[in-house]
Design a protein that fits this description.
The protein is α/β, with parallel strands linked by helices and 464 residues long. Helices cover 42% and strands 12% of the residues. GO terms for molecular function: aromatic-L-amino-acid decarboxylase activity; diaminobutyrate decarboxylase activity; pyridoxal phosphate binding.
């Protein structure tokens, strides 16, 4: 064994304790650190050459803390309001550390404890989101992969309707395909490109006036004009305004039209946890496939999402993998047959930990507190003449812009000026350049709202 590696093995408990102290110090400093370092502080250091002979874990830890840690954002903290980014609850952090320590490849029944834990966890999540046991779930890396898997199953369903198998014969066997949606997330077009269906297959259907929710009557007409079976991508929480399609109305259209219903509920599914907001997810269970991103509102570390479907038989038809060292499909297929990944990190453990530690009630409190914080920030910004809300706060996102001349350049200057205290991300809503503040972190409180609002007000006045 390499001498440095052997020395680290002998000192492993001490090294893990040093790492624990470094992590605890970083988390304790979140409130005082700039949410996003300025451009100078975030600039990359001069590249170092690959070491020929390493100096061990302790020296690597110190090098990381001096060269890279100061350049990191406080994305685990309460005022990082970009990208719908959660943090990591204490239990999720513990679970993620143990995931690395146990280092399970949880894809095979030959060493099956990991995938058994994942099945228990997806069962808890299915219950959490109000899905029936007709749905089965699998962990993937994020919403983009969850949408890709769901649409891959939809692609096979189209083939089933047309008497072909795209998994065997290729996507060209389907002929022209239409995928209809009102306000699809950008990952939908990416998934269609990956799956060989093409970005051009995505048809945008008119939305309701002043909304991002699809107009069911317009979708009805578009489906009537679509020859053969189709795919409909519904939204349970859009990016800009967290708008929800009327899922029961969309499901009712299946009495007249033949289509697969995939619902992108990346963070909107968490509305189901709150009695005040659960009505927004009514009809989610009728979906043929569902995307939920867990490193958003479940507050588990990146990367983690779940993909649910009613047609696991089609899922295995797409992703089955045949090799002598892999288990057979069987009635309860190994995870290797359910996603594009053959190597499957035990992502479920962090989710299992946080659900086991805090239960439904603990995660409901996070959701409701974040929604209250979003509404409080909207109220603060409404009282600032230099800023203007662009949409009502339906759940946990505040979409706003400058009251005058909201150009991308001026909004970028506003973001940079406020960046030490609050991080928000750019968007365009209704043709207007805008900013969005997304609340999903378990640490965020009303005190953070006040700090964020003051920073945004001050920055907006400086721009105006």
């Amino acid at each position: 064994m390499d001498r440095t590696l052997a020395a680290d093995l002998a000192r492993l408990p001490d090294l893990l304790d040093a790492t624990r102290r470094a992590a605890a110090e970083a988390l304790a400093a979140l409130d005082a650190r700039p949410v996003v370092p300025d451009a100078g502080a975030a600039a990359p250091p001069a590249p170092e050459p690959l070491p020929e002979h390493g100096t061990g874990t302790e020296a690597a830890l110190e090098a990381f803390r001096s060269r890279w840690q100061p350049r990191f954002s406080a994305s685990a903290g309460p005022r990082y309001l970009g990208f719908v980014t959660g943090g990591a609850t204490p239990a999720a952090l513990a679970g993620d550390w143990l995931t690395a320590a146990h280092d399970q490849n949880s894809n095979s029944a030959f060493d099956g404890a990991g995938q058994h834990l994942e099945r228990e966890t997806t069962g808890w999540l299915r219950e959490l989101f109000g899905l029936s046991d007709a749905h089965t779930g699998t962990f993937v890396s994020g919403a983009t992969m969850s949408n890709t898997v769901g649409l891959a199953i939809a692609r096979e369903w189209l083939g089933e309707r047309l008497g072909v198998s795209p998994a065997e014969d290729g996507a060209a066997a389907l002929g022209p395909v239409r995928v209809l949606s009102g306000a699809p997330h950008s990952s939908i077009a990416k998934a269609l490109a990956v799956l060989g269906l093409g970005r051009a297959s995505l048809v945008r259907v008119p939305t309701l006036p002043g909304r991002e929710a699809v107009d069911p009557a317009a979708l009805d007409r578009a489906l009537a004009d679509t020859p053969g079976p189709a795919v409909v991508v519904a939204n349970a929480g859009t990016v800009n305004t967290v708008d929800f399609d009327d899922l029961p109305a969309l499901d009712a259209l299946r009495r007249r039209h033949d289509f697969w219903l995939h619902t992108d509920a990346a963070f909107g599914a968490f509305a189901a946890l709150s009695p005040r907001h659960a009505h927004l997810t009514a009809g989610l269970d009728a979906s043929d496939s569902v995307c939920v991103d867990l490193h958003k509102w479940l507050n588990v570390p990146y990367d983690s999402a779940v993909q649910f479907t009613r047609r696991r038989d089609l899922q295995t038809r797409v992703f089955q993998n045949a090799a002598a060292y892999l288990g057979p499909l069987g009635d309860d297929p190994d995870l290797v047959h359910l996603t594009p990944e053959n190597s499957h990190r035990l992502r479920a453990l962090a989710a299992w930990f946080t659900l086991r530690a805090y239960g439904r009630a603990g995660h409901r409190e996070i959701v409701e507190r974040d929604v209250d914080c979003a509404r409080a920030l909207a109220g603060e910004l409404e009282r600032e003449p230099a800023l203007r809300l662009l949409a009502p706060v339906r759940l946990n996102v505040v979409c706003f812009t400058l009251a005058t001349a909201p150009t991308p350049e001026r909004l970028a200057a506003l973001r940079e000026a406020a960046g030490a205290e609050v991080f928000v991300t750019p968007t365009v809503y209704g043709g207007t350049p805008a900013l969005r503040a997304a609340f999903s972190n378990w640490r965020t409180t009303q005190a953070d709202v006040r700090r964020a609002a003051e920073a945004l007000r001050t920055a907006a006045k400086g721009i105006a």
